[in-house]
């Protein structure tokens, strides 16, 4: 719609689910293919849930690095730091009960925390069982080089058009 009005982005960037939107706008996928990518992601998450492990969750956290580390130390490997969105702004993911404990701990020490309304622990090792099925689903879908440059949210560098494959997108 925006491009129809003559506005075209110079670069695309997206994080997590936003990567699907960014890649679609950049021309890597047609809209129908993007729908298939969304469905594949949902199916991959369902595999993790069906495996019978603990309930998973995520939280946002605003605090100093030292507070974050102390909060994480309370729950051991049941929760991990999965995103640093900006200085002092984090996302933690892991076992839902332990994530809730982290929210309470953050609030008790003056941090700002919120349990996210998500039934998964995206960007964490807890989602590892979803990786292979998602990669396989992407391999079955057409993937074109981007028409608009895309910045990697991992490296901060532009991704070369030759670097776009189903495998690299799955990662």
What's the arrangement of secondary structure elements?
Elements: H1 17-25, H2 31-50, E1 56-62, H3 65-75, E2 79-86, E3 89-95, H4 96-108, E4 112-116, H5 128-139, H6 166-170
Helix pairs in contact: 1-2, 2-5, 3-4
N→C terminal distance: 29 Å
Strand order of the largest sheet: 2-3-1-4
Q: How can the largest sheet be summarized?
A: 4 strands, antiparallel
> What is the beta-strand fraction?
15-25%
* Count of individual beta strands: 4
Low-confidence stretches are none
Q: Kindly state the mean pLDDT as a whole number? A: 91
The percent range for helix content is 40-55%
Globular, elongated, flat, extended or rod-shaped: what is the shape? globular
Decide which structural class fits the backbone. alpha+beta
Rounded Rg: 18 Å
Order of helices and strands: HHEHEEHEHH
The helix tally amounts to 6
Please characterize this protein's 3D structure.
- By secondary structure, this protein is an alpha+beta fold.
- The protein is built from 6 helices and 4 strands.
- It has helices at about 15-25, 30-50, 65-75, 95-110, 130-140, 165-170, and strands at about 55-60, 80-85, 90-95, 110-115.
- The protein has a 4-stranded antiparallel β-sheet with strand order 2-3-1-4, with helices on one face.
- Helix 1 (about 15-25) packs antiparallel against helix 2 (about 30-50), helix 2 (about 30-50) packs antiparallel against helix 5 (about 130-140) and helix 3 crosses helix 4.
- It is globular.
- It starts with 16 loop residues before the first helix and ends with a helix.
- The mean pLDDT is about 90.
